[in-house]
Amino acid sequence: MPAKDTHGSVITCPQNALIILVNEVFDSDDESTDSENELYQDEEELNEPSILTTRVSTISRRNVPKVAGYEEMVTERMLDYDFKTHFRLYRSTFDLLLGKININLQNQTRPTSPDKMPLITLWILATPESYRSVGCRFDVCKSTVFRIIRRTIDAIYEMASTTIDWPGATEAQNIVSANSSTAGFPGVLGAIDGTHILIRTPQHSSGTYINRKGFHSLQLQVVCQHNLKFTDCYVGQPGSMHDVRVFRHSEICTDLQKSTLFFPEDSHLIGDAAYPLSDRLLTPYRDTGNLTRYQVRYNFKLSSTRMSVERAIGMLKGRFRRLKFFLFPYLVFICKSIIAACTLHNFCIDENDLHFENSEELSSGGAATINSENNIYNSTVTARAKRDRIARLS
């Protein structure tokens, strides 16, 4: 599948991975990307001499006291439980992560330890602390913290193509069997849902990012398995956009038509009533007070099976609390950070690093009262017949 750079609208991972990064879609003014361009320009350009930097260099630099040796004196002595409480990963999981991204972190011009860089990044993702506070803790300046986070997020983001991927035929059969044994709902390959990521007020087109609850946010749409692993992540649409429109713009909407490749043996996704009904995406019956007992039982089993995606989103935001509110001013960097957090989420599950006591179920709470059969998509006769057939089997 084609890929575009950070100035494009889509970043798609090779083959089955369906990870999409959307920029500010409602703002076509070139000036809107000035701050993002400054974030990703080469570090050598930042150090080019100019009149301004020449004048600043004549001023003596303040020596701000910082905590010395926190990494060596404190983190090395932490018990495994304490290490996970602070950095959201077990030490063994952290060591495996460091082994995967260490090569990308070693290619740097300034002498920051590659072991310290992911520690700083995990601390930023796990807490609402400022760059200044984190820099003081790890004995680096604020600008160095920003540079470290940018490099580490990029390194973790590169893991997404192999960590967040669509299941193959054999794995799909195992997922369908597991979901069927959980709540008795047949053929479920995954559950889809969305959530809002709170952000600070954007500099451009800020009104388009205000969601129905009155705050600025980005939309994150995910598909997850029964084991809470994400198989598809789509992020970047503004908070004012409805779940159906977000779904319509995502690549998973197109992939629903590729039944033999992505949905073997008549499998399907499940979603709430905000999503359109199709033969590859089943939604609940609209409750108008006239549902049959089969339809009521169908809705109950669908809801019970769909709880996995709400738990996954809750675990994601509980582990990486930065996702509850981003103070970063760069939307492209925020989108990359969100995908990096989703990548770490899957990586932890692969390493059996599951339990997290502060997890919260924080799905978007989409407009479930919307009749998915009367929105911009037309539910086909085949989709309704399939839903009725499953309802009678319940």
From TrEMBL:
Limits of the DDE Tnp4 domain = 192-346
Where is it located?
A: Nucleus
Keyword NAD listed: no
Q: Name one Pfam family in it.
A: DDE_Tnp_4
Q: Which GO terms describe its cellular component?
A: nucleus
Named from the GO MF annotations, one term is:
hydrolase activity
Q: Which InterPro entries match?
A: HARBI1-like, HARBI1_dom
NAD among the record's keywords? no
> Which cofactors are reported in the record for this sequence?
a divalent metal cation
On the tree of life, the source organism's domain of life is Eukaryota
Which residues constitute the signal peptide according to the record? none
**Keyword vocabulary terms for this entry:** Hydrolase, Membrane, Metal-binding, Nuclease, Nucleus, Transmembrane, Transmembrane helix
Q: Which residues cross the membrane?
A: 325-347
Q: Which family does it belong to?
A: Belongs to the HARBI1 family.
Record's protein name: DDE Tnp4 domain-containing protein
Origin organism is Artemia franciscana
